[in-house]
Amino acid sequence: MAIKVEMPKLSDTMEEGVIAKWNVVEGDKVESGDVIAEVETDKATMEVEVFDSGTILKILASEGDAVPLGKIMAIIGEEGEDISDLVEEAQSGNGAKEETADSEKEKQKANKSEEKEPIDPVFGELEQNGSEQGTKQKSASVTDDGRIKASPLARKMAEEKGIELSSVQGSGPEGRIIKRDIEEYTPSRQPAAPAAMPSASKEDKEHRVSQMRKAIARRLAESKYSSPHYYETIDIDMQHVFAARKKLNEASDVKISFNDIVVKACAMALRRHPAINSSWKEDTILEHGDVNVAFAVAIEEGLVTPVIPQTDQKGLAQISAESKELAELARDRKLQPEQMEGSTFTISNLGMFGIEEFTAIINPPNACILAVGAIRDVPVVENGEVVPGKRMKATLSSDHRIVDGATAAQFLSTVRNLLENPLGMLL
């Protein structure tokens, strides 16, 4: 009996998944537990396993296609098994419109008799080779609004290879350009440009919005416009942190970063100021028992925020080891959803990019986020004399429904005291 492979729920906020890669083709035999595909969710790229053995009879989504939660991705069964009913169900449910060869031919005949040749969205009606030939150059199929029909994967491949989509003939449904068309594309000889042509405009490019970017846009828009943000900035003397970090790294194989020390200071300050370690629940404010600090990691698709659980109970060496491992997993898109959940506070550090000061949007359901800038070499006054100093600005964004200004200021003061006296964090 044929079995449907449906898009699984791979994260708590997932609504659809994009097929990043198929590990099988139609006709392959699979066993229970085999990974047949990699799917891009709003949080990470996850593996999809099958729970039954059989043959891949039909793959119903191409690489780059978005498949809604619970919709059919593929069909498994015995070779030669009739799956027409399941294919029809999948096409209806997934919104696919794959036509048979006969119906496609009839449609092409109707189009030829009732419609004019397609018009190129940039250059207008395509130039004929001559009335004696009576033929026109083929072009990609376009939508009503002038966009060329192409799968997201085909668009990406064309961009990487420098191929103009308007010059590619699509072989997919309704002339849609698919992966195979880009792989097999051979550029035709182009006529020489006129001698006196004005400089040409650069072509606009559209990039598919990844599931992660959609989630970032949705969550941060909700945070910015539903949480009343306000900001407080503090300037911290980092001279003693420099000296302490140097001694720690000389005495141990574990290399401590400045961000590790900031994470530790914030974790200790959160334990002393539980109002900062809270979340808004409409009728109540939830004061979290654990201190779970998240830190922002930049990847190609945007930002992810892996979490160090029970951060306040860990030493600098453990915080350093965990943060390095989580950051590496994040950059490889291998973070699991549970490694990005449960944060009670977030740190965003742009100091490595030379950013001196910025404000960050609160990562819900946190009450606050700390934006950390670069450590600056500046002149400072000590005992009436100007001497070299090292300073770092940090800006706390707070949700005014939970945290008042004085409470935020007290938290920042504690963070500053810990960083300006780092030996206290070792006690």
TrEMBL record:
GO terms for cellular component: pyruvate dehydrogenase complex. Its EC number is 2.3.1.12. Keywords: Acyltransferase, Lipoyl, Pyruvate, Transferase. PROSITE patterns: BIOTINYL_LIPOYL (PS50968), LIPOYL (PS00189), PSBD (PS51826). One of its GO terms (biological process) is pyruvate decarboxylation to acetyl-CoA. It comes from the Bacteria. Residues 149-186 form the Peripheral subunit-binding (PSBD) domain. Its cofactor is (R)-lipoate. It is an enzyme of class 2 (transferase). InterPro entries: 2-oxoA_DH_lipoyl-BS, 2-oxoacid_DH_actylTfrase, Biotin_lipoyl, CAT-like_dom_sf, E2/Pdx1, E3-bd_dom_sf, LAT1, PSBD. Residues 187-200 have a biased composition (Low complexity). Residues 90-148, 187-207 are annotated as: Disordered. Residues 96-119 have a biased composition (Basic and acidic residues). Signal peptide: none annotated. Binds 1 lipoyl cofactor covalently. GO terms for molecular function: dihydrolipoyllysine-residue acetyltransferase activity. Residues 128-142 have a biased composition (Polar residues). Forms a 24-polypeptide structural core with octahedral symmetry. The pyruvate dehydrogenase complex catalyzes the overall conversion of pyruvate to acetyl-CoA and CO(2). It contains multiple copies of three enzymatic components: pyruvate dehydrogenase (E1), dihydrolipoamide acetyltransferase (E2) and lipoamide dehydrogenase (E3). This is Acetyltransferase component of pyruvate dehydrogenase complex. The lineage of its organism: Bacteria, Pseudomonadati, Balneolota, Balneolia, Balneolales.
